[in-house]
Amino acid sequence: MVTTSFKTTKSEEIFAAAQKLMPGGVSSPVRAFKSVGGQPIVFDRVKGAYIWDVDDNQYIDYVGTWGPAICGHAHPEVIEALHKALEKGTSFGAPSYLENVLAEMVIDAVPSIEMVRFVNSGTEACMAVLRLMRAFTGRDKIIKFEGCYHGHADMFLVKAGSGVATLGLPDSPGVPKSATQNTLTAPFNDLEAVKALFEENPDQIAGVILEPVVGNAGFIPPDGGFLEGLRVLTKENGALLIFDEVMTGFRIAYGGAQEKFGITPDLTTLGKIIGGGLPVGAYGGRRDIMSMVAPSGPMYQAGTLSGNPLAMTAGIKTLELLQKSGTYEYLDRITKKLADGLLQIAKEKGHAVCGGNISGMFGLFFTSGPVHNYEDAKKSDLAKFSRFHRGMLERGIYLAPSQFEAGFTSVAHTEEDIDRTLQAAAEVISSL
Ligand code: HOZ
Question: Is CB count within 10 Å lower at the N or C end of the chain?
Answer without folding.
Answer: N
